[in-house]
From TrEMBL:
SMART domains: Resolvase. CDD domains: Ser_Recombinase. Residues 9-156 form the Resolvase/invertase-type recombinase catalytic domain. Residues 137-169 are annotated as: Disordered. This is Recombinase family protein. One of its GO terms (molecular function) is DNA strand exchange activity. It holds the Pfam family Zn_ribbon_recom. Residues 165-280 form the Recombinase domain.
């Protein structure tokens, strides 16, 4: 039905929603495309209706849509332009209403993604199919959202119902400076390779509590420090992520409107470190390490073939005196032939490491190795992007789940290998804020716990071989052979 000039009076309908690639298709873009479409069809745009409706499927009311239908019934418009059928309706019943209206009032419908003629049976079938596909997608989305809400609720319970994120006030915008300082400290310590359990223990003794007033646990601290929120960025769990629990890392989709507490760079590095599966096992496996050098010391007793035993030494006290020993473990090659006093060994290794760190030449060589790390960063970033792209392909059904798993496997293997390498070469972070004069470092060493000290030691040496004691000498530093990393 045309007006007197013969031009169709068209209404553009836009809907804000969270679907289509996660970020939603902007309303400005929807309107722009629809206006271009109307111009092409020679339609006269007399109204633009926009509903802010995050999900049509949830049955939320859409006042502008209702308004538009009213205008159709009153005969004020005779054409509707939408970006896609799923902008207009997602329920079959609503679609039937539209088809019915189109029938009775001769309304034409045009979509940017392809015109649909509701006046013909074929056009209606296409519309119904598109509607069904959209509904299928919406149902899946509803399922995901339900799961997410449940997880949010569970997290909320752990947080004691308090919604305030650590580091921010109740408005989620204002930085709480005392907590921001704690977050920055936590990030520094993770970058220095300290374990989450160790940081939690320290915070516990200092009385630092979560917003729920509870002591920090490694799992909670991990989520806090890996969250994009603390760098002022918004994170979105990507579609096509099929894990049963919320993945640690979502996709960073936008800058947040709130201020960041740490830099984007630090956030990216911490996220990489905390998502390293090797690290995760370490965190869950060993929570306490009272012996600084267990596993770093290697038994140096020669075997029959002349090679040294090489077994990692572990802490084993005798008569209350802490020692490192080549363990006597039946069924292994450990020779059980070497032991050394733990306290004196710790001191000796500490002094050797601090002396090395005081040497400009040694630091120069370490820095050279960190340059190799930046190439690894690049490779890791590329692999991570490829994984995301694959997940998207599968989310949008461009590849099958099987194809996805096959393609994913080789990338993940390479990724884990590179992450492991990176954790070995990324020493600048471990040592920043520590290196200084010998006396400075000795002072800082005193303030550190064993996990922090261990990070310093392993940033400098791969291992230390310990020869069996000479019974005639009380303490012999020559028994220790250092395998320096640089
Ligand atoms: Zn041995």
């Amino acid at each position: 039905m045309a007006n007197l000039t013969g031009t169709r009076r068209a209404a553009i309908y836009c809907r804000i929603s969270q679907d289509r690639g996660g970020a939603g298709l902007g309303v400005a873009r929807q309107e722009e495309d629809c206006r271009a479409l109307c111009a092409r069809l020679g339609w006269d745009v007399i109204a633009v209706h926009t509903d802010n409706d995050v999900s049509a499927y949830s049955g939320a009311t859409r006042p502008e849509w209702t308004e538009l239908l009213g205008a159709v019934r009153r005969g004020e418009i005779d054409a509707i332009a939408v970006w896609h059928v799923d902008r207009m309706t997602r329920s079959p019943r609503e679609l039937e209403d539209v088809i019915d209206l189109a029938d009775r009032h001769g309304v034409e419908l045009a979509t940017v993604s392809g015109e649909i003629d509701l006046a013909t049976p074929t056009g209606r079938m296409v519309a119904r199919m598109l509607g069904a596909a959209a509904r299928h997608e919406a149902e899946h989305k509803a399922e995901r959202q339900k799961r997410q809400r449940r997880q949010a609720a569970e997290a909320g319970r752990i947080a004691g119902g308090g919604k305030r994120p650590f580091g921010y006030e109740d408005d989620r915008m204002t930085v709480r400076s005392s907590e921001a300082e704690v977050i920055r400290e936590g990030v520094r310590r993770v970058l220095a390779n300290e374990s989450l359990a160790s940081i939690c223990r320290d915070w516990q003794t200092r009385g630092i509590l979560s917003p729920a007033g509870k002591p920090w646990k490694p799992s909670g601290l991990r989520r806090l420090l890996a969250s994009a929120r603390i760098s002022g960025r918004r994170e979105h769990t990507p579609r096509g992520s099929w894990e049963s629990t919320r993945p640690l890392l979502g996709e960073i989709v936008a800058d947040g409107v709130w201020p960041g507490i740490i830099s984007h760079e630090d956030s990216d590095r911490v996220r990489r470190i905390l998502s390293d599966p090797a690290r995760r096992q370490r965190v869950e496996g060993t929570t306490k390490r009272s012996y600084l050098l267990s596993g770093i010391l290697r038994c140096g007793k020669p075997k029959e073939n002349g090679e040294s035993c090489g077994w990692p030494m572990s802490g084993r006290p005798r008569s209350g005196v802490p020692r490192y020993v080549c363990p006597n473990v039946p069924g292994t090659d450990a020779c059980a032939g070497t032991a050394t006093n733990a306290e004196r060994t710790d001191e000796h290794v500490r002094d050797m490491v601090l002396a090395a760190l005081e040497s400009p030449a040694f630091m120069e060589r370490l820095r050279g190795q960190d340059d190799a790390g930046s190439e690894l960063y690049e490779e890791i970033r590329e692999d991570e992007e490829e994984l995301e792209a694959l997940a998207r392909d599968m989310g949008e059904r461009r590849i099958t789940r099987k194809e996805w798993m096959v393609a994913r496997q080789s990338i993940e293997e390479r990724l884990n290998l590179n992450r492991a390498k990176l954790s070995k070469v990324s020493r600048a972070a471990v040592l920043s804020g520590f290196v200084g004069t010998f006396e400075d470092m000795q002072e800082r060493w005193k303030q550190m716990n064993n996990s922090q000290r261990r990070a310093i030691v392993t940033a400098c040496v791969r291992s230390v071989e310990v020869s069996p004691a000479n019974p005639r000498k009380r303490w012999d530093p020559d028994r220790f052979v250092f395998d320096w990393v640089a």
